[in-house]
Amino acid sequence: MAATATISHSSSITLYSNSQLNTSSVLKNTCLSSTSLVYSSSSTISINSCNTKICGGVTLKSRNGRGGIRGGRLVCLAASSSSAPSVNLPKALMFDCDGVLVDTEKDGHRISFNDTFAEKELGVTWDVDLYGELLKIGGGKERMTAYFNKVGWPEKAPKSEEERKEFIASLHKRKTELFMALIEKKMLPLRPGVAKLIDQALDNGVKVAVCSTSNEKAVTAIISFLVGPKRAEQIQIYAGDVVPRKKPDPAIYLLASSTLGVDPSSCVVIEDSAIGLAAAKAAGMKCIVTKSGYTAEEDFLNADAVFDCIGDPPEERFDLSFCGSLLEKQYVS
């Protein structure tokens, strides 16, 4: 026999392994305020934005006491097209590129760096583990410079600092050409849910931008060939050397919000790395982390939410309504 529960101010809901809370059927037309939702591994919390209003003070906590959406799964189902959204939407949705739109690092950028090193006969190879460490440095040119400064410059590299900058720039240019060839062949797919979330944003008048430390040509290729030309026309790109200081510095996100004419506090960022998260939070923006292959074990305690991906139905993790709900501080990690 089905059980009925009354959920009121300061209630606590505990979800144990494999349990589910679906507000579209269980909490239909209810209001949750100052409610604690405590979940375990494999729990599912589905929040239907048409039927359930979640007010300030709602907290999601894992049963091990650590914040964020880690052990279980939270789904905020979008309102139907005939219904007005029940939460305020972001003014802008900003995506990192590598690791967020496409998991490009291991089998894209790393391969292109190594092919470039081989062409130039530098005797350098970045294996999977080493490249994972190098990703802590934002920007390909900066990454190569830091690596050579640490292990020693190749014999074929020039000696003066100015010539070495030109040498690094030439390597990066060739690496970008090789990477773009991979993208144009569509060898790397979009991550689950990316196209869906972009479409939801564009359909609701939310501005969309991609903010990346990668070369602008490489980012543009990803947007054009993988995200699609029609969407690309409506997406602003901020990438490469458009700002003097790269992530974790917030400069690129502050530039994007300023150019788009939106307040940072009204923006939601999708990132996959600790340095990207730091940049978004320093800019005063909400940040959702979708973990990628290289970043799964990084520290995301400052994130507003953490998922393994955005996800497409029926495996959707979150949607635009969930992004909007973060702006009202409905979910506190």
UniProtKB/TrEMBL annotation:
One of its GO terms (molecular function) is metal ion binding. The keyword Transmembrane helix does not apply. Keywords: Hydrolase, Metal-binding. It comes from the Eukaryota. Gene3D superfamilies: HAD superfamily/HAD-like, Putative phosphatase, domain 2. The keyword Oxidoreductase does not apply. InterPro entries: CbbY-like, HAD-like_sf, HAD-SF_hydro_IA, HAD_sf, PGP-like_dom2. Pfam families: Hydrolase. CDD domains: HAD_CbbY-like. Belongs to the HAD-like hydrolase superfamily. DOG/GPP family. This is CBBY-like protein. It comes from Coffea arabica.
